[in-house]
Request: fold
Amino acid sequence: MQLELDFGRPFENEELHWVTGCRPDYSAQPMAQYTIMIRADDDPERKPRPKGGQKDRRPHLTIAKWSIEDIKAKLLEHLSDGEPRTFNRIGIELWDKGGDLLAGTKVEEALWELVEEYEVGCTVRAPIRFVVNLEWRWDHERKEWVER
Reply:
């Protein structure tokens, strides 16, 4: 059973505020690091477990073998449609793994690196959503925003 939390959701007609360029600093409130796992109402559900259980019974070990660069490429490709998604939704759509399982793995690290590199933006209120800006991109050489 999934715990349903109903705090921090945007109010009706509330504008989402997007940031990019740095990851959140959780040093003052370590429990805030779990905010990334909060699901949105429209997040998909994981597929039902197959009879006999999942093939990969140690997904953390499997994920640890993946390269950060490969994960980043997959995340960018998936987010390139411009649809804002929660960490949970991204994980379910790409790997059928929820945010609770992917938190603290290379997948979370890769996503925050994309935010730090100005490739992906995120909201500042839970549920945190991630998106690629389809109109603008950060030019690292010129150190300015340019049209895509």
